[in-house]
User: Fold this.
Amino acid sequence: MITREQVVAELKALRADRRRFVAALLMAAAAAGSLAWCLTQGAASGAYALLALGLCMAVVILRHPLSDPRRYDRGAAYVLIAAAVGLALFQGVPIGWPLGVALVGAVAYFAGLSVAGWLTVPALLFLVVVPSTAYLYDLLSFPLSRICAGLTVGTLHIFGVDCSFDQAMIYVGSQRIAVTSACSGIELLEAMLLLGWLLVYHEHRTFIARFAHYLLLVPAIIVCNSLRLILVIVLYKYFIGEKAFDNTLHEAMGYGVVIAAIVILFFSGKLFEPLDKKDDAGKDETKCDSTESAG
Assistant:
């Protein structure tokens, strides 16, 4: 358990490291602005989940050792800030994009380009993605809905169930089932992104293992949602009829999808352990080379 003394000691160490401290202040300001937007606009719970995801990422990155500054770091920072100004001059570009690029440029100026690169994702989460969750739904909802509809109908055909689909609509006899945002998993996607990131971060030691494992989350969501749709259709056609579309049952199955997707992600972790071992082998080789050179 983390004690108060440990937190105070870490904050003092952060303040003593000027580069890390300034980068932390910049990210904290962006997170505070994102939180203010959520509170004033009455954002959905998904926006808060994405905000928490950005905070977790930023804290983890800023706790790692910083690389030494390079000569071209400030030059790159100037380029990024100029790009932010250019974006701000274009009409129709959401204000979050120039702010996000400017934030990355400011971090590059004070903490170096490598740190700014790692903090790009949380910066964009704070300033671009969180205020645009409605656009996220529009961007992802239909493709996910269509994939789930196709996979559901294809699976049911294997077992001889007469059904068809068109775009994101499933037809079972005279019944039409619209695969909406809720059915495609998009409404709970943000929560799953946060839980999935926390899981893969603590399960692996290397970036490549974490990234590869994290990518498995989307197929897991698609498979679990398709299984939910299959269950709903089977219940409707053979067992309880219209009661299969009851809101309470629908919501319970939605939370079941979250649990099932995270369980799949958890038990699939062993598949990506070789990526951690490869990195360890590379480190051991480097150590051996260093030892031989010293000898």
